[in-house]
Amino acid sequence: MKPPVGSISRPSQPRRRGIGPAPVQWVLITVAVLFSAVFLVLPLVNVFAQALAAGFGPYWNALRDPETRSALRLTLLVAAISVPINALFGLAASWAIAKFEFRGKTMLLTVIDLPFSISPVVAGLLFVLLFGAQGLLGHWLEVRHIRILFALPGIVLATIFVTFPYVARELIPVMRAQGREQEEAALTLGAGGWTTFWHVTLPSVKWGLFYGIVLCNARAMGEFGAVAVVSGHVAGQTDTLPLRVEKLYNEFDPVAPFAVATLLALVALVTMAIKTFLEWKTRRQA
Amino acid sequence: MPGFNLTLGFTLVYLTLIVLVPIGALAIKALGLSWKELWELATNERAMAAYKLSLGASLLAAAINAVFGSLLAWVLACYRFPGRRVLDGLVDFPFALPTAVAGLTLANLFSDHGWLGQFLTPLGIKGAFSRLGVVIALTFVGLPFSVRTLQPEIQMLDESVQEAAICLGAGRWRRFITVTAPLLLPTMLTGFGLSFARALGEYGSIAFISGNLPFQTEIAPTLIVMRLDQYDYTGAISVALVLMIFSFALLLILNTLQGWADKFHEP
Fold it and tell me: Residue B245: enclosing H or E segment and its boundaries?
């Protein structure tokens, strides 16, 4: 079951106007706006308000903390590894699923959607049971001094598990809508498979691919549950930004967790801005 | 058309390594444990309290989203008003925001001295570090699922059906109750289910807002983490298995619902 959030190809203009009598309309609009103010606007504003409650000095100091900076570096590194790999997977999976018919496709789609229905904590647990000291490969790895759990590889694997469907799920409908005619024309004209992919397929799905990557990146940088289970929480080494937020929060620091949180909130805001822009762009093309 | 073997092969190898092998590890580990012990740890008092809170709070959050999320979807799809575009964009905010940040800011908002908590405290209501806090966080993370499921459906409502109802002399309310609402119901239920599924697995925001007290504000994913922290692998696996059974049952129901909703669109 694919969650509907994130797709950029949806109608957004209200086609029909003014259903119901005017007073009913205004009551409904007011309730919706009030609900959104409490549940959407206030939480966002509060992050920045608390981060800057003591002024720019403490905010800046919190961000300059060496352990926070190391967490930032780790988060960027994890995203830099897991997002391209997932993008590659997304391209391959969507090509196979959208351009060809084969048995077991529904099954394949179900497997791709699994991370949407498995709790991130359970996802982390899976890797603990595979690579942990008591895990299936634990002894084998220990003898060879290979560290996967409580180290970078484990964090990357857990992140990949939680975020791999996003690019694929964004690309499959776009590639399906594109059909195979253009590629077949290029192939008939003598273009090779890779040439066709680079010059015909990729340009026509580039915005879908781009948005899939943006979404995957936002989730990769923000993943908490799965990473919390496999990271080991070593300060300055295996703490990502979200884990750093939790640690500072548990130390009852009033400013620092919010200061770190503003970085993650900014990633979310940029992601939303890109989505709005791409929606506007695809609507204009349509 | 080339590339089938390459892309499907890569997809299958990737999924096997990233998804199937880890799930296989869980299966092998679980099979090696004593069933009696697994059952005992999956159903002891603390675990039952955690499931109860997980299911109850997720259901409540999904219900709140079914009401207010549907209202939001309706308002965004049907009406024009200043700020509609901004509101439409903001709906994705809980989806884009890392759950840790969501938990952090909600816990602060609803704490005793927070912007919203200060109004609840005199009423004797604890917003953060309580079961209410769990419901608030789960409502937040589930909201986009319920709005975004229903919104396109409302936009694509078939106007000819409405016109037919008008021709038959149905009034506004009657039209809404007998024509529009039944058309939207399957999708609304799908949105409810997706929001519920999202809430059931949620951990990040709850870790901040609930206080994580056993028997009181501890949800099932939190219990898994607590047991892992104590190296109680059997205990963690037992709760994880129960949670996965819930998720897969829900997935099955949702796919059935989706099939039902799709029937409405058959020409």
Answer: helix B233-263
